[in-house]
Amino acid sequence: MENTSYVKTIFASVQWLFFIFANTVVVPVSIGAAFGLDSGEIAAILRNSLIFTGVACVLQGAFGHRFPLMEGHSGLMWGLVLNLSMAASSLGMSLPEIGGGIASGILLAGAATLVFGLLRIVSYIQKIFTPMVMTVYLFLLTFQLILIFFKGMLKVSEDGTLELPVTMFSFAVVILVSLMKIKGNETVGNFSILIGMILGWVIYVILFPSDQGMNSQSSMEFTFFPLGTPNLNYGIIAITFIASVINLSNTIASVQAASKLTGEDATQSRLDRSYLLTGTYSIAAAILGLVPYAPFTSSVGFLESTRIFDRKPFLIGGGLMAILGIIPVLGALLATLPITVGNAVLFVAYLQLFGTSLKSLNGYTFDSKSIFRLAAPVLLGLSIMNLDPVLFTVFPVILQPLLSNGFIMGVLLSIVLETFIRWDERSYEQVSGKKQN
Fold first, then answer.
1. Which of 134, 109, 113, 105 has its CA nearest to residue 273?
2. Which of 148, 153, 293, 362 is surrounded by the most beta carbons within 10 Å?
3. What is the distance between the alpha carbons of residues 34 and 81, in angstroms, rounded to a whole number?
């Protein structure tokens, strides 16, 4: 692990804080709005999210997998929860009923994850997520996140038209951060994310003073199961549980990728400890109305952008994140960061995740079979991502959220292909570099 100077540690810690915050703040607000919560309830779950995310990062970095990997709201589960909320009317259920079923599914998945960690059976889960499945997972995750952040860069007015000045400014931020990363010296390149966010924030306020940031003022109230009381809606529970199991691949992909970057071994004990914490987080998230947690595979893209692998700035950044939630005025200040600027900077940061996806192909010999194994699930997932969810209304309503999720369907197809088809094992090499016989 590299030693960083005192000043570099300070700036790296602040950079981690901005990265964690930008990846967190939109999630609880969007979930609260989707479930019709009032402003006080939304502010409360946002406050809980800030505190919980900061604490989760510190515990994982210090006692869990012990890598500088953000522990945050899963993008996969975030999309699923939003899809289920939008499908409430077609499913013939109220939003509290949907939310209660989701809470039950998350609680069940959290308990199962705890069992996996306690019984040390993570290795059996890893057999499902083979190297090819993880490659498919990384590609689909890259495409899903890039689409989210690209759309977030665009400023759309209430009448559905594009506000060109703000949108063009977002692209200017992308160009600026990219140039700092490509043309700048090592120091500028390492802190391009932080510089881009702060500089973009300041210039945005000067150019667009009328636009306000997100309001994060909150009370200190705690509400249990704000999205709905747990129930036995088996369809919602099943879909949420399946997605949560697939979400476990976040840990495997993240820890393995971080291990290669930092040169530290991703031991089985690290994975076991990580699952224990993630399972605990999931149960707490269901109770507090938060999206389930997982190590962010996208953190690898951030690490590759900054090239700072020391855990100390990450742990400090996580601690600062928790303080933002504890002291509302600090969270309110950082929440004035324009969403379009945050998305523009994250767009550049996550370009590096595409490189991680390509690197995961090292050792494969490409022939018609190996190409099919990769292309079929990836292209199916991408195709579904670009379809209108309305097209899936012809299927049973309980299956619509699952079938319309390109990420889940792509990964599931890859698991099926790798589990039930005996491929020519000579077409690729193991991660260790040894050919299979």
1. 113
2. 293
3. 9
Token pair recorded at residue 351: 């370009």
**Contact (Cβ atoms closer than 8 angstroms) between residue 299 and residue 22:** no
Give the closest residue to 129 by CA, choosing from 286, 291, 329, 297. 297
How distant is the alpha carbon of residue 333 from its chain centre? 24
- H/E stretch holding 370 reads helix 368-385
Token reading at 8: 């570099």
What does the alpha-carbon distance between residue 50 and residue 346 come to, in Å, rounded to a whole number? Answer: 19
Q: Which of 227, 286, 287 is nearest to 42 (CA)?
A: 227
Indicate left, alpha or beta for 108 from its phi (over 0: left) and psi (-120 to 50: alpha). alpha
- Helix/strand/coil percent split, the chain, to 5: 70, 5, 25
**Interhelix angle for 406-420 vs 368-385, to 10°?**
160
Q: CB atoms < 10 A from the CB of 162, how many?
A: 11
Residue 260's nearest CA partner among 312, 315, 297 is 297
Span 400-436, pLDDT tens digits: 777 888 888 999 999 999 988 887 655 544 444 444 3
Q: Nearest CA to 270 among 65, 68, 118, 57? A: 65
Domain ranges of the chain: 6-427
Phi first, then psi: give them for residue 221, nearest 5 degrees. Answer: -80, 150
CA distance 32 to 126: 34
Q: Quick count: other Cβ atoms within 10 Å of Cβ 430?
A: 11
The three-state secondary structure class of 429 is strand
Instruction: Kindly give the pairing relationship between strand 293-295 and strand 71-73.
Output: antiparallel
CA distance 353 to 145: 10
Q: How far apart are CA 83 and CA 297, in angstroms?
A: 22
Sole residue written with tokens 């004035």: 336
Q: pTM value? A: 0.78
The residue behind tokens 């079979």 is: 369
Cα–Cα distance, 139 to 95 (Å, whole number): 33
- Is the distance from CB of 46 to CB of 29 less than 8 angstroms? yes
Place of tokens 């699930």: 377
